[in-house]
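Many introductory courses stop at the sequence. We go one step further.
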Amino acid sequence: MSVIRDKERGTWTVRCRYTDWQGNRKEKHKRGFKTKREALEWERQFLLQNSKDIAMGFEAFVGIYLKNVKPRIKPTTYQTKQYIIRDKILPYFSNKRLCDIESSDIIQWQNELINMRDESGRAYQPTYLRTVSNQMSAIFNHAVRYYNLPQNPCMAAGKMGRHKASEMLFWTKEEYDRFIQTMIEKPISYYAFQLLYFTGIRIGELMALTRADFDFTKRTMRINKNYQVIQGKKIIQKPKSEKSIRIIDLPQFLSNEIEDYCSMIYGLKEEDRLFELSKSFLHHEMDRGVKASGVKRIRLHDLRHSHVAYLIELGFSPVEIAERLGHESISVTYQYAHLYPSKQRTMAERMNEDHTKEQDDGR
């Protein structure tokens, strides 16, 4: 290995040999360093990364982690990881070595985030804190599994935050009816919210819909793609999971409305997106409708919760609802269990009837 000065350009070049993950001996060249010190530091970090040395800097290992997971996850998931790591993890641990981070460091980091407040005095949501906590643990799990780190310091420290929100907001049918009346004069908003409330689809699924996804004879809507904007680029990708690919039956009134909406769009082709809008537009429209109707403010995603609450009110089971919403597991649907009316009294009465019947039969 060597660091050589390029006298003509006035820069430094690194040339080093290393063994890759397949056991092959290779040579790496890197030019353009302004100083010898900068070249030596790059060489040191490069060799650490390629030798699986857990004495490498935490920031260097994060670079390896992101490189390893990027081909295996969706662009939106990767972008979320980048944001969380950059803003909530690296500022605290970038100067530490991977092997030096202990459970006590994790606890102090967690406490910093738990106690943090914005300009309005608001803390991070417990569900967000749990997401950040899970991301930190995922980094160390990767180091344990593939880079011989003895243990994950997050395990002893425990998790912060909560897996799910303590309160699930949704609109009742009566509240939604009041809200949607304020949208009638703007067709694209009206039909977008109609689909969100009466089908429970995700925002990205809504914005990916094309004319070809609807069969108005069968009154069905196909969900097989998801629309996202990543670093300014519009991307159509696969839905959240395999279960998210589904056919949704539409009520007759909604099928008629969407068919009417399609007829309003001049020159509409089968592959054209029906809702050329943004999340910020929908946020603005929701704010406008809430102010005009007087209903409580919920998030856009809470329209999905509202659909579940509506179906529960109509008497449908968790299994039936899970299929319609494309939940990966029935356990996701059971998060709404508190919305179901209690059957405790009915259970007690049925058991009493059964017990009484057995006694009568035994006489």
